[in-house]
Protein 1
Amino acid sequence: MTTPADVHDVRDPEQPGRLLTIERDALIPLLRGRAGEDFARPVAACPGWTVRDVLAHCSAALTRVAEGRFEKGVFSPESNDRDIAERAGWTDAQVVDELERGMGAAGPVIAGAGGKLDILALGEWVHAGDVRETFGEPGAYGGAGLPDALALLARITRERGHVPLHADLDDLDEPLRLGESGGERPPGRFIGDGPTLVRLYTGRPLDGVPAFELAGVEAKELNIFG
C-alpha cells in the first residue's frame, strides 16, 4: 500500500520548474514596484549580501542552468561572488529582467537533468523567501509554491539519507516524512507549519515564527545547506 510519504519518493520532473514559475509570477511584480534603496537592504539570511546581491546570484545561477554552462567550480562561493561582481554595472531592472527570464527558462533543463539540479530550484525559491522576509512581505518561505517545495524537500532529504524526521504540518492533511534512517535511528518529530520547517532545513532565522515543537533531533542537523 502506498502512503502519502511514499509518494514523495517518485520524482515529478516538472515540479522544480513549476516551483520556479509560481515564484516568478509572485516575486517579479513585487520587485518591479520597489525603489532603488530597497535593493540595497541587507539580507539577514545571507550575511554580507544585499537584496540586489541575492537577486544577482539567483539570476546568474538560473541563466547558467538555462544555457548549460557548468564549468569547474560553478556554484561555489567564489563563483557566486564573481557572478555578482559581473553584474555590478547593471541596473536593478536588468538584474530583475535576467531573473525573470531564468525562472522560466531553467525549468526544462532541470527537468531533463534526472534530479541532479532539483535542489537548485528549491534553493532559488528559498532565496525568494529571503527577499520577501527582508521586505517584510507576507508569504516568506510559503505561499502558492509551498506544496511543491515541501515535496521537493522530502524527496531530496530521503535521496540523500538525511536525518529522519516525521513532520505534522498545519499546511498538509497527512504527515510528511523526510530523510532516511535505514532503521539505524528513530525519526525525530516536528509539529508546526510548513514555512517554519523550510526555515529549519535551510538554516534561516527563526525570529518571530509561530510556535513549533521539535523532538529527537537538533535543529542544526536538519540544515541541507550547512
Protein 2
Amino acid sequence: MGDAAAGDAAITLLIVDDHPVVRDGLRGMFESAPGFRVLGEASNGVEALSLAAGLDPDVILMDLRMPGGGGVDAIRALTRTGARAKVLVLTTYDTDSDTLPAIEAGATGYLLKDAPREELFTAVRAAAQGRTVLSPAVASRLVLAVRAPRAPGNEPLSAREREVLALVAKGTSNREIARELFISEATVKTHLTHLYAKLGVKDRAAAVAVAYDRGILGQPSS
C-alpha cells in the first residue's frame, strides 16, 4: 500500500464500480502511490452505502450506472445521512442526464475515466479537502445545463458575495465562512441565496462552475 508522506495521514478510499477489472486497476494505482490507502471495494451503490458506514473513508470513488444500485441514489443517501466521506464520481458518462443529477445529489466532484493518473490523484486530494473538482468537459456541460432553464441576470456580485463564493470554491463550510468573515451562519446563507440567484444556479458546485466560466474566480486550479 502507498504510504503517506511523513507527518501526513493517508487519504482513505472506497472504490465503487461494477467492473472488477476497473476496481483492481484503481486499487493498484492508488496503492502504488504515496498518500493513499484503499479501505475497500463495492460493486454497486447499495453495497457502497453499507461499506461506507463501516469503513468511514475520506473519499468514495463512485461509478454511476451499476446493476443492483446506481451511483446517484447512493450519493443522495450519503448526503441525506450526513456521511463524512466526499464523493468523487468517476465514470465514462458525461451527458447532462448523468452529470447534473450527480452534482445535485451531493457529489463533490465529477471526473471521466480517461482522466490521466496524476489528474485523478490531484482530484482525490482536492475532494478530500472538500474542494469541488470538475473535469473541463463536465464543467462546460454543467454550465450549459444550469443556464438552460433560466437566464441568469447580469447583476454583479457584491464584494461580500465574492468573498463568500471564493471560500465556497475552497470547500469551506458555512460555519467556517461565518468564522472567517466574522458574520453569522444565517448571514452566510443569505449571501449564498443572493449569489445563487445572480448566477442562476441552485447549489454550491454549480455556483463554482459558473463563476469559473464567467471569470469571477479566475481559473480552476489543476
Protein 3
Amino acid sequence: MSDVELARIPAGVIDLAAARGRPRRRVALDAFELGVYPVTEEQLAEVIGESAVHPRRPAVGVSWLRAIRFCNALSEWEGLDAAYTFDGEDVTWHVDSDGYRLPTEAEWEYACRAGSTGAHYGPLREIAWTAADGVSAPQEVGARHPNLFGLFDTLGNVWEWCWDLFDPAQHRAVRVLRGGSFADDAGSARAATRRGDAPREGYPDVGFRVARGGFDAVDAAQGWSTREDRDRALE
C-alpha cells in the first residue's frame, strides 16, 4: 500500500485554550509520531477497500468514527495492536497501544506550531490552502511549505479530527476539529482555532491525519483523560 509517512515529534510543552472561556492550561507532552500529510484518498481506499478519484488529495467526508476505524484497520494491516475498541459507538482508547490513532488536541496544536508562537507557522499564502486561493476542493497534499517539524497542510486544505471531546458540558459527544480548510477564511486557519462536530458526520472539507505512540498509563495521555472529560461534563 502507499506508506503513511510519519514525522517524529519531540517532547515539549504547549499552552492550550479551552471552550467557553476556561483558563488556558499547560500540557507536557512525551515524544510521539504524526502523519507528515493528512490521510489521502489513495491510502483510505487501499485500507478500507474503495476507489480513489483523486489519489493525492486528502480523504474527506470521513466521520470521526470512520477515521477511528481506519486507524484500527491500518494497525491490523501492519501487524500492530489496535489502539481502539468499540461498544456500539462508544470508543475506548488503549493509551498503551502503539497502533495508529488520532492525535490528541494537545498533540495536534503542538505539532502544528512546531515552535512558533503566532497564529501561523509561516506566511499563510505559502503554507495553507484557504478561501483566499479561490479553490473549490481540497488540493493535493504537500503542495505548500511544511512547518519546522516537516508537517504539511496542518493549516488549511482540510479540517482534521482529533481524539478529544470539544466541550462535554455543552455537547456530550462532539469531537474536536483543527486547522481550517480550503473553504474557510484566514480566521479559521490558525493554530489555536477550535471547532467541533458530531462523530457520525462527514463533510467535504474535513479529513484527518494519524498519530502513533503508546504511553504507560490508563485512560490518560498527552493532555487528555477520561477523568477530565467527566469533570468538564459536570460544569
Protein 4
Amino acid sequence: MTLFLPPLAQDDFRFPPVDEALSHPDGLLAIGGDLSPARLMSAYRSGIFPWFGEDDPLLWWSPSERAVIQPSDFHASRSLRKAAKKSAYTITLNHAFKTVIATCAAIRGPEQTWITDEMQAAYCQLHTQGDAHSVEVWQNDLLVGGLYGVAVGQVFCGESMFSKATNASKFALWQFSQYFAQLGGRYIDCQMMTPHLASLGAKPWTRDAFITALQAHRDRPIIQGCQPQQIADWRPQ
C-alpha cells in the first residue's frame, strides 16, 4: 500500500492539521522539513513531535491516543516512597542537559534509539534558547538518572528518560511533577502509553482532548530560561 504524506516546505514552519494524521501507522502526519528550533516549537505547540530512525527521513507524528500525567495525579507507590527515604539522591533541573540527552540515546544503543546525533544537536539548541529542559538524579557526584523534554507554556512534553540506578528515572519524574505543579504546570505529555507510565499515573487521552488542553495552556510560560537549580535533596532517614 502506498502512503501519501505531505512534504514540509523548508521555509514554512506550519504543519498539516493533526486530524489528517494517518491511522496506519497511527499518528504519522508529515515528512521532511528540518529540526530547526522554530520548526520544533511549531510542532510542539501543535501537538506534534518528530520520531525517526538514523536512516529514515524526518517523520512527524500526532498519535490518536496520548499518555498524559496531571502532576497532582503522579502515583508514587508505597515502595517508591520507602525507597526515597533510604536514598541519597539530589534532584536538579538543567544542570546537565547535554549529558542527559546523550545518555538517553546511548543507553538504548544505536539500533533502538531515535535520538540521533542530529536530534541531540537540535534539542541542545532548544535548551540554549530556554525551551528544552533536563532533570538530573545525582548520587553524590554521579549522574544515575534523568529525563528531558520541551516546555510549552503550562504543558511539559516529555521526550525520554534513563536510569542507571534503581528507581532513578521514577524519582526524576516524581520530583519534577511536584516542582512543575508548584509553578502552575497543568500536564506532562508522555506521548505513548506504556504499562510503566500507567503505573506512575499516566492516563490515555484522545488526540482531540490533548490538543484542546494544549491550546488552552500553551501561551503562559512558567519555566523561565534554563537556570540550573536543585529541586530535591534526599538523605537516608
